[in-house]
Specification:
The chain has helices spanning about 10-20, 40-50, 70-105, 125-145, 170-180, 185-200, and strands at about 5, 25-30, 55, 105-115, 150-155, 205-210. Helix 2 (about 40-50) runs parallel beside helix 3 and helix 3 runs parallel beside helix 4 (about 125-145). The chain is an alpha/beta fold and about 210 residues long. The protein has one domain: NAD(P)-binding Rossmann-like Domain (Rossmann fold). It has a 6-stranded parallel β-sheet, sandwiched between helices. It holds the Pfam family adh_short_C2.
């Protein structure tokens, strides 16, 4: 049985997906209190202590602000967001790839966002962090596919769990109106996508968008 490390596995969407993964895989679910992904020392220690075949990073932070109206109060939340969304993923890749290369097999899946490709007001910095992630993972795949390691991102739209579920209902209704299926995605649909990527080696270096038809 393959072993999966799910970073951000204790969050809203992670908590819904992990039980589905556990039906097929040996899963280690981690929150920020278990391993702080912004600390390369903590991430390195985790991979020294655990033999991991598959890494899924569901960690993410979001801070909304107009780029031309930043205040001093925005700087702390923005730094925290970039530390998680950018440095967290760099730390995970840096620490997990050597072990996967040595084994000749591995899967890295990072959760991105459709906002990486959308020009949405108040999301400039968040969107840029997700666009960075998409390119980081794509290049990591290019470098490591020859060793049997695939790297992909999943660009999420709006979901029943996670960030989407925390906004006011009127904004949720407005978002659903833009979706072809007129509903948010659910944990089972995300699990199916993750399992598809794990099982299909030819799916590699992609930024796979699942958004219900926005």
């Amino acid at each position: 049985m393959r072993t999966i490390a799910v970073f951000g596995g204790t969050g809203g969407l992670g908590s819904a997906v992990v039980p589905l993964l556990e039906e097929k895989y040996d899963v280690i679910s981690l929150g920020s209190k278990g391993v702080d992904i912004t600390s390369i020392a903590q991430v390195r220690r985790f991979f020294l202590d655990h033999e991991i075949d598959i890494v899924i990073n569901m960690s993410g932070k979001k801070h909304d602000c107009f780029i031309g109206e930043l205040s001093v109060g925005d700087l702390g939340p923005i730094k925290d967001m970039l530390d998680v969304n950018i440095m967290g993923n760099i730390n995970i890749l840096t620490c997990c790839l050597p072990y996967m290369i040595q084994k000749g097999w591995g899967r890295v899946i990072a959760i991105s966002s459709i906002f990486a490709e959308l020009n949405t007001p108040k999301n400039a910095i968040y969107s840029a962090s997700k666009a960075f992630l998409d390119r980081l993972i794509s290049v990591a795949n290019r470098e490591n596919i020859k060793y049997g390691v695939t790297c992909n991102t999943i660009q999420l739209g709006y979901w029943d769990e996670g960030m989407s579920s925390r906004v006011e209902m009127k904004y949720q209704d407005a978002a659903k109106a833009k979706i072809g299926l007129k509903r948010f995605g659910n944990a089972k649909e995300l699990y199916n996508t993750i399992d598809f990527i794990i099982e299909n080696e030819y799916v590699c270096g992609t930024n796979l968008r699942i958004d219900g038809g926005i």
